[in-house]
Design brief:
The chain is an all-alpha fold and 281 residues long. It has 13 helices and no strands. 79% of the residues lie in helices and 0% in strands. The longest helix is centred in the C-terminal third of the chain and has 29 residues. It starts with a helix and ends with a helix.
């Protein structure tokens, strides 16, 4: 799970390498989805995984539209416009979106402990959005950057909500292959076709192999060994690692209040995860 968090944390900082080469977020998202889809399809074939159930194929394609095309584009747009550190923190608004959907759409009651965790997370997101940068750090909390970041959190939440049943009844590699291929098809009309530099290709290859295929396999193996509750707690390392990587690679530095906000986001997610664990036990 730590390996998965570290690999996902490198998404934003490495994507900035491709952006620095003049490649648009939509194009980076397309190639990431395309290469990763081929890797997962190959993995499913080599491991002789059962074919995706016929009744789940439409759901898998919907997952591709929302949680591949939607998530990849919104996250990369947030990275390009506001910086990798800001995007990573805003991505973790996902628990807030899940709780709002459960309460207003599914009419589920939110326990007091989880409500407190969500308020802590939301407050942290607001602090990061309002007071992000320190000194000359390359962080810009523009309305567009914050909007794309919150949209990525919503898409991330939908990934869990839509994927829960799919992963429970199908080989995960098959689900990912279908979803990624669908996402690539959706993104294809918006790609800026042209010659890419070797640095851009290297960044895209890393995003597809390490930060997508490798991260997913690490996450899946971790879930088998420690369960979803502990795994979700460990996953909160991702924004911390992402902020560290953004500082080391690009000099991005959060302000004091931004650090407080980031800590609140992580604390809220941990509190929600431990509350969920107590409920299930």
């Amino acid at each position: 799970m730590v390996a998965a968090a570290f690999q996902w944390a490198l998404l934003g900082p490495v994507a900035r390498v491709a952006f620095a080469e003049g490649i648009a977020p939509l194009t980076v998202a397309f190639w990431r989805a395309t290469v990763a889809a081929l890797l997962f399809a190959t993995h499913a074939s080599v491991t002789h995984a059962h074919a995706l159930r016929r009744q789940d194929r439409v759901s898998a394609m919907l997952l591709g539209v929302v949680a591949v095309a939607g998530l990849y584009v919104s996250y990369f747009e947030s990275v390009q416009r506001g910086g990798a550190a800001l995007a990573a923190i805003l991505l973790y608004s996902a628990p807030v979106w899940v709780a709002l959907g459960a309460h207003f759409i599914l009419r589920e009651r939110v326990p007091a402990r989880e409500a407190g965790a969500l308020l802590l997370t939301f407050g942290g997101v607001v602090l990061v959005a309002l007071f992000p940068a320190s000194g000359a750090a390359d962080i810009a909390a523009t309305p567009a950057a914050v909007s794309w970041g919150l949209a990525s959190g919503l898409a991330y939440a939908l990934y869990f909500l839509l994927g829960r049943s799919l992963f429970a009844h199908n080989a995960p590699a098959r689900v990912m292959a279908w979803a990624l291929a669908t996402g690539a098809v959706v993104l294809a009309p918006f790609v800026q076709w042209g010659t890419l530099t070797w640095r851009a290709w290297a960044a895209i290859a890393f995003l597809a192999t390490v930060a997508t295929y490798g991260a997913y396999l690490s996450n899946a193996n971790g879930l088998k060994r420690i369960g979803a509750s502990r795994a979700s707690t460990i996953a909160t390392l991702e924004p911390i690692l992402a902020v560290g990587a953004a500082f080391l690679l690009w000099g991005e530095r959060l302000s004091i209040l931004g650090v407080v906000g980031a800590s609140a986001v992580v604390g809220g997610v941990v509190l929600a995860a431990t509350a969920s664990r107590r409920t299930t036990t």
